[in-house]
Amino acid sequence: MQQGVILVRYYKREWDYPRQLNDLRMLARRQALQITTEIVEKIGQLHPLRESDGLNQLLRLSREQTVQQVLVWEVTRLGRSTDEIRSIITELTTLGVNIYIHNLRIDTLVNGQFSPAARLLVMVLDELTHMELSKLRERLSICKKRDRPSSTEHDADQQPVSPAYLTKYPAVVLNLRAGISLRKTARLCHVSINTVRKVNDCLFRQLY
């Protein structure tokens, strides 16, 4: 029987994390996966990888080869930035540890090999990381404009969204590129429909 870890990381105002934990426990039972460790961690708005006790514990268990699988609710729980998420996925799969991302229904390893879905996910994360670095100056400029009071809320909504906006929502990007509808993407990623529309508009502009 394979041994696994359940990883639940939640924000201060996120009250449904017990349901996430219970759903992942049920999933483990269906897969006949022996859960040896449950990592439950509250995270703040700014919580880099090096300061996360939960992720560091997960990395330690993986490096010790004591677990073969990790169950996580969504990909954004693996890090605070696209680069951190990519780093976690790459290291764990290299160590032979499969990550099951529940909201995307993705296994990073299939028959011991990097799965096509995981390759696509890493490609998206690579693209977003590159965009994040190359657009840093533009993002700072947008933040300054955002701090200025706008004339009306309507005018603010009409302002174009920077491509760097995509770096905040990697799971939304992946769902949209997989052809999942806007409303279903909003439900799976726990974001508003307006956020999904903005991400979708930004992706559309990149094509033209």
TrEMBL record:
Q: Which domain of life is it from?
A: Bacteria
Query: What Gene Ontology molecular-function terms does this entry list?
Result: DNA binding; DNA strand exchange activity
User: What InterPro entries does UniProt report for this protein, alphabetically?
Assistant: Resolv_N (IPR006119), Resolvase-like_N_sf (IPR036162), SSR_resolvase (IPR050639)
Q: Which SUPFAM superfamilies match?
A: Resolvase-like
Q: Record's PANTHER family?
A: DNA-INVERTASE FROM LAMBDOID PROPHAGE, RESOLVASE HOMOLOG YNEB
The UniProt similarity line reads:
Belongs to the site-specific recombinase resolvase family.
UniProt name for this protein: Resolvase/invertase-type recombinase catalytic domain-containing protein
Organism of origin is Spirosoma arboris
